[in-house]
């Protein structure tokens, strides 16, 4: 059984924040479960089970926040990339230029990202260079509000309250980013663009790949819009190892079919390749 101090820390930390009318509303979804959980702690009940079962309502609340933001800001190009790239790096500059080119061609499509630093910032600034709408779903880092500098972690240096939301759950953010890249109507111009990154970027990229394989990012039921393109920006061969594993090693053992990935991922070494591919898709 979890110690009561550990239990209360878990309860305290389960929250999300979203922008509402210019002010942040802090929603402690699981705090309402604290009485029952604390009672279980004192009577020998299954405390861990009670705490975990509180999270679905919290996640649902955050998913609703994401969907509301997508409805307000509009769908568009979803960029997945590292938070660690410095502004002076070549990948940062290439990403900013890529977003500028894409959103110059498609100014009515929103630029979506994880609203973090690094390449997430680069694509946002590139879209702004083109005068396009921008939006982001930011993850709150750290402990409970009362234990941290919550103000800096629930605000953004340049996105307005109307342009982003702050979330606790990564699963909710992925729901929101996928929704932002789905073509809800024929005129939507969207795509998923995987920039260089690490574990978090791979998590998001592979989720998009699986959803495409299962046709879970298809247009709404009753429509016939094709799946939006998914691009992998292989700057400087950063994804060569991953691609070799998926296209050769996994295929050698029969875990991936011949040509299966070609149907779902378009690998681009340069911005020119990526822009031309998007233009051809929407021609």
Automatic annotation (TrEMBL):
InterPro entries: LOG_fam (IPR031100), LOG_family_nucleotidases (IPR052341). SUPFAM superfamilies: MCP/YpsA-like (SSF102405). Coiled coil: none annotated. Pfam families: Lysine_decarbox. It comes from the Eukaryota. One of its GO terms (cellular component) is cytosol. Gene3D superfamilies: 3.40.50.450. PANTHER family: CYTOKININ RIBOSIDE 5'-MONOPHOSPHATE PHOSPHORIBOHYDROLASE (PTHR43393), LYSINE DECARBOXYLASE-LIKE PROTEIN (PTHR43393:SF3). This is Cytokinin riboside 5'-monophosphate phosphoribohydrolase.
